[in-house]
Specification:
With 364 residues, the chain is an alpha/beta fold. The chain has two domains: 12-41 and 272-363, Aspartate Aminotransferase, domain 1 (Alpha-Beta Complex), CATH 3.90.1150; 60-269, Type I PLP-dependent aspartate aminotransferase-like (Major domain) (Aspartate Aminotransferase, domain 2, 3-Layer(aba) Sandwich), CATH 3.40.640. Helices cover 40% and strands 16% of the residues. It has 14 helices and 13 strands. A seven-stranded mixed β-sheet has the order 2-8-7-6-5-3-4, with helices on both faces. A four-stranded antiparallel β-sheet has the order 9-10-13-12, with helices on one face. Strands 1-11 form a two-stranded parallel ribbon. A hairpin with a 6-residue loop joins strand 9 and strand 10. Helix 6 (150-160) runs parallel beside helix 7 (180-189). Bound molecules: pyridoxal-5'-phosphate. Pyridoxal-5'-phosphate (PLP) binds next to helix 4.
């Protein structure tokens, strides 16, 4: 007698909203000049990479990471300029920390749902995680020149009483830093936490870290990704120890592996190498911006980050044309009405930027 075929589980064991979602798409960049994901284009210098390899070879892979890598966190806090009396928490990229903070605030019992608010367009994961955690996401459109609409923000905060406000500073994908006075007003008014996401700090060199001392509702979020360590997946959130203590309860044990911890610990001793790379990227950003301004039919926006948003007449044709010439940028033109016609290019090496400019010039 043949065995009964294995019973298939019902597809609806998976939540309807999850089944309706699409996974975060990372395009295949094989063989392309990769200018789509705001990575630092420079590898570690060979000698440093060799030393790092030696250091990593001594890491005990058979052991879990320490429950609290206190010594590393102290060193990172010092490098980051964390105010005395404030605390720092590590995440598997700042993505994980965004998710943990939202999870910690997402009340099941809030009438109409817990509100997560952000000016839009902005970094998509604030909305993705908010929705996944059953929160209501309120996006407040920026002005046409990508500034904060102060009146609309005040009105939305008063109306929706958000548990969390996310501000990317500089903003992704627009590249600008919002006016500090507008953010001070949000910090004065918001009834919950205000997360200022400084992912692009190495290129903006403008921080809210000192304000932690006098702003109990402020969380400063950072990452090592844009500084040249995107593959490590290491982000950190800085805030009052009471908030960090709550978020920490939701952190999966051992969320940061021994290799990223050891690599970051080693690289803290060589931070100036990464800072010098960021300085080259800032100089290249200025060169790229003026070259883009000189192209007809291309309207770039100022940037304090390591990418530049630019508007063109035919974004889909240009995006495909750039791909055809071996260059991958990000087509954001369909993602928000304010971004109509826009592509985003990450600042690459001087050679990569030249190749991009040459291809764009030939196409536009
Ligand atoms: C504003 C902003 N925050 C956070 C992140 C995520 O960074 P991480 O690599 O630390 O998860 C990004 C990535 O592009 C970003 O643009």
């Amino acid at each position: 007698m043949s065995a009964a075929p294995p019973r298939k589980p019902r597809p609806d064991v998976i939540r309807d909203d999850v089944r309706a979602m699409r996974a975060y798409a990372v395009p295949d960049s094989t063989g392309l000049i990769k200018l789509d994901a705001m990575e630092n284009p420079f590898p570690l210098p060979a000698e440093l990479a060799r030393e790092l390899g030696e250091r990593l070879s001594r890491v005990a892979l058979n052991r879990y990471p320490p429950a609290d890598p206190a010594r590393f966190k102290r060193r990172l806090a010092e490098a980051a300029g964390l105010a005395p009396g404030k605390a720092l928490m590590l995440g598997n990229g700042s993505d994980e920390l965004i998710h943990l903070m939202i999870q910690a605030c997402a009340r099941q019992d809030a009438p109409g749902g817990t509100v997560v608010l952000a000016p839009t367009p902005t970094f998509v994961m604030y909305e993705v995680f908010a929705r996944l955690d059953g929160c209501r996401f309120v996006g407040v459109p920026l002005t046409a020149d990508f500034g904060l609409d102060g009146a609309a923000m005040r009105q939305a905060i008063a109306q929706h009483r958000p548990a969390l406000v996310f501000i990317a500073y500089p903003n992704n994908p627009t590249g600008n830093c919002f006016a500090r006075a507008e953010l001070e007003a949000i910090l004065d008014q918001a009834p919950g936490l205000v997360v200022i996401d400084e992912a692009y700090l190495p290129f903006a060199q403008d921080t809210w870290m000192p304000q932690l001392a006098e702003r109990p509702s402020l969380v400063v979020l950072r990452t090592l990704s844009k500084l040249g360590l995107a593959g490590l997946r290491l982000g950190y959130a800085c805030a009052d120890p009471a908030w960090i203590g709550e978020f920490d309860k939701l952190r999966p044990p051992y969320n940061v592996g021994v290799l990223p911890l050891a690599a970051a610990d080693f690289l803290l001793d060589h931070f100036q190498v990464l800072q010098q790379q960021a300085a080259v990227i800032r100089a290249e950003r200025a060169r790229l911006l003026s070259a883009l301004r000189a192209l007809t039919g291309v309207a770039p926006f100022d940037s304090a980050a390591n990418f530049i948003l630019f508007r063109v007449g035919e974004p889909d044709r240009l995006f495909a044309g750039l791909c055809g010439r071996g260059i991958l940028v990000k087509n954001v033109s369909g993602s928000h009405p304010l971004l109509a016609g826009c592509l985003r290019v990450t600042v690459g090496t001087p050679q990569e930027n030249d190749a991009f400019l040459q291809a764009l010039g030939a196409l536009s």
